Amino acid sequence: MSLLVVGSVAYDALESPYGKVDRTLGGAATYFAISASFFIKVNLVGIVGEDFPKKDESIFHQRSIDIEGLERAPGKCFFWAGRYSENLNERVTLATELNVFADFKPRLPEKYRESKFVFLANIAPDLQRDVLKQVKGTPKLVAMDTMNYWIAGSNAELRETLKHVDVLMINDSETRQLSSEHNLLLAARQIFKMGPSTLVVKRGEYGAMMVDRNGVFAIPGFPLEEPQDPTGAGDSFAGGFMGYLAGANSRSDAALRRAIVYGSVLGSFAVEQFGLERLLKLKKSEIHARARHFAKLTQFKL
Ligand code: AMP
Description:
Bound molecules: adenosine monophosphate
Distance between the termini: 40 Å
Number of helices: 11
Order of helices and strands: EEEHEHEEEEEHEHHEHHEEEHHHH
Radius of gyration: 18 Å
Structural class: alpha/beta
Strand content: 15-25%
């Protein structure tokens, strides 16, 4: 069993009240793959430029992440710069330089085409669909992320992609924007009509909520005293979520609920330090300990 992801591998410049880094490895597929690799082998599809050094390549090689699908092209890697507000809940994008990403045409190596679990990170919806078309048969579970830019600017393409997706994982403002409903339960009902059977709403420090035809499951954010940098929290959440499901080879209701917990665990570690710093030294035992902590946190008697 393996897990396929398509998305950005990037360099980020990050600023928060806790510090600043000028250029560090990031990108949605990077955060996703590192988080998911604690549970399962990950096959990564993306593109990098000539400025992608061996030392960063080795971050993937040292984990169970296959990068045969990471194309190298003349030019520079995708570059993104962002700054966070005092409470870390808001961020402004200071720069998005697509570079090699501008002409990206995802191509799946033959050995990736049998994937049963697929995650389409936040990229152009027609590229997400391109990837799905190259997967043989019907995968067991397809999940995707998107953002306000695509909801507003490529709505028709996005809706076409959504028809082929089981789980949509987005934040609360994106949920409202896509569905034109303020209430998240009503929003979920609209989104089910577009294709997905499960909606996972990522709510930052307030946790996550999953809605499907069986009902609602919600957990709080893991209480942290000093989160430093929220970059990649959503992608790490998705990595924990999909990694757990692919590792368990299941999409049962019970597995989906545990996946929400593992997603939250990975997201909470990601924000503890800048960029990938915390994830790169994370141990499996710490992941399981925090999952048990979550169980305690949400337990009560009636
Ligand atoms: P998140 O904090 O979960 O939104 O993810 C942030 C990561 O996504 C950063 O490492 C960026 O390099 C990457 N990113 C930011 N904007 C985009 C975009 N428009 N397309 C693809 N990746 C992006």
